[in-house]
Design goal:
Elements lengths: L5 H5 L8 E2 L2 E2 L1 E2 L10 H14 L9 H20 L8 E4 L2 H16 L5 E5 L8 H10 L2 E5 L10 H8 L5 E5 L11 H10 L3 E5 L11 H4 L3 E5 L10 E5 L1 H6 L10 E5 L2 E4 L13 H17 L1 H20 L4 E3 L13 E6 L4 H10 L2 E2 L1 E3 L4 H7 L5 E5 L6 H5 L1 H11 L4
This protein binds ligand C6P.
Length: about 425
């Protein structure tokens, strides 16, 4: 497989041409949101300039073109994750909304007082809070599979022993936004299904970066966000197996999600439209379709390979710097981690570090990364600094890290 020429790929991204504080912009926060290539920006621009209209409503040329482009984008998304068909692809706002939809619909109908939802200690808030909210209403319980002693991977013995309590729902992230850890989602799904649980996977940090094959994994649901995979904000995906989606009641009611309505009642539209009430985020769907085209034009396997090499290079270079503590899988374990590296520098608060990085034109994130239970209780940190890669990052970007840390030490008088 031919490697990615990141410096060349960078040219596809208008924003990466700008300077920050007079310096070449080094964008190392793609786990928060990715930058957008020209092709995605153009696809949205083209929709508004040439065929802006509502979908599923007008019997005229541009409305048909918009409907076709929107539905066509679902076919592309289905292809990317090897879903059965576009019927299985429900659009919503983001990963958070996708997980909430399942919680509010399936969760509400499936769970009774005392029932268990099993998740893990490495989840983003979006895969904790909806289940805690549900437990307040229904009296259900949330359990968390523990991390191993090194705080890198899920402790599979603990996971298996919690499955013995017969949770009704099992939900976990495919890849951690803090540790970078890639979970064995196929095995975790197999084990949960053996116990009869419904399996929901948070794919926010996985789908943009490596091959996701929902039919091979076998999960019932998968949630992910368009904005983390070169697409626009405000469009997210809930994939569901057909029988799982058919068994779910819609969360929102209104236009487009119905087959018929009378004063006496209503019946639901076919999949996936049953879950998309009101006018959809049409530009978002079209933009996401262009984003998937872009991913496929590079090759998801090449993206993964590039990021793994970059991660190895970054971990090696960070290991040389005094006072740097890296969280998550190490240099010899890059096959089991993505390109998200959380770290701290002894004696420097991550927020200060981030500000000094910014003065060098480098964008990193610092904080709890919407994973407070993991960062505070498991890692024992108030906050961590985080760099995260995507296909457009290069070794030159990684080479900017060490001098920025040196500058922070110098400014803050830390040895
Ligand atoms: N993590 C980060 O900087 P939304 O906000 O709904 O698009 O994605 C939520 C989400 C869910 N799961 C995981 C594993 C995630 O990483 C995220 C988003 C961003 O880490 C913003 S907090």
């Amino acid at each position: 497989m031919e490697g990615i020429d990141a410096e060349k790929l960078r040219e596809d991204f208008p924003i990466l041409k700008r300077k920050v504080n007079g310096k070449r912009m080094v964008y190392l926060d793609s786990a928060a949101t990715s930058q957008k290539p020209e092709s995605v920006i153009k696809a949205i621009d083209n929709y508004y300039r040439n065929y802006n209209s509502n979908i599923h409503r007008g019997l005229y040329r541009i409305a048909e073109e918009a409907t076709e482009a929107y539905t066509g984008s679902k076919e592309k998304v289905a292809k990317l994750i090897n879903a059965e068909a576009y019927r299985n692809i429900v659009y919503c706002r983001n990963t958070t909304e996708a997980i909430n939809m399942v919680a509010l619909s399936l969760g509400k109908s499936l769970l009774e007082k005392g029932d268990i939802v099993l998740t893990t200690e490495m989840e983003h808030h979006s895969n904790i809070v909806p289940w805690q909210m549900l437990s307040k209403r229904l009296g259900s319980k949330v359990e968390y599979a523990r991390l191993d002693g090194d705080k890198k991977f899920i402790d599979m013995e603990d996971y298996k022993s919690r499955l013995e309590k017969d949770p009704k729902i099992v939900t976990f992230t495919a890849a951690s936004n803090v540790l970078g850890t890639i979970n064995d989602i196929k095995e975790m799904t197999r084990l949960a299904h053996k116990k009869g649980a419904v399996v929901i996977i948070d794919g926010a940090q996985h789908v943009p970066h490596m091959q996701m094959d929902v039919r091979e994994v076998g999960c019932d649901f998968l949630a992910f966000s368009g904005h983390k995979m070169f697409g626009p904000a405000g469009i997210g995906v809930l994939y569901g197996k057909e029988e799982a989606l058919e068994s779910m009641e819609p969360v929102l009611g209104g236009g487009d999600m119905i087959r018929s309505v009378s004063f006496a009642g209503c019946s639901w539209n076919e999949l996936p439209w049953k879950f998309e009430a009101g006018t959809s985020n049409i530009e978002g769907g079209i933009g996401l379709g262009a984003a998937v085209d872009y991913i496929l034009s590079i090759g998801i396997g090449r993206i993964r390979e590039h990021e793994e090499e970059l991660t190895k290079y970054a971990l090696e270079s960070m290991a040389e710097i005094r006072g740097v503590e890296v969280f998550g899988p190490g240099i010899g374990e890059t096959g089991r981690r993505g390109g998200t590296i959380s770290f701290n520098v002894n004696g420097i608060h991550p927020h200060d570090l981030s500000t000094i990085f910014d003065s060098e034109g480098i964008a990193i994130r610092a904080g709890h990364h919407c994973a407070m239970p993991l960062v505070n209780s498991v890692l024992g940190q108030d906050a961590v600094a985080r760099i995260s890669f995507y296909a457009y990052n290069s070794e030159e970007d990684v080479d900017a890290i060490a001098p920025a840390i040196s500058k922070a030490k110098e400014v803050l008088k830390v040895s």
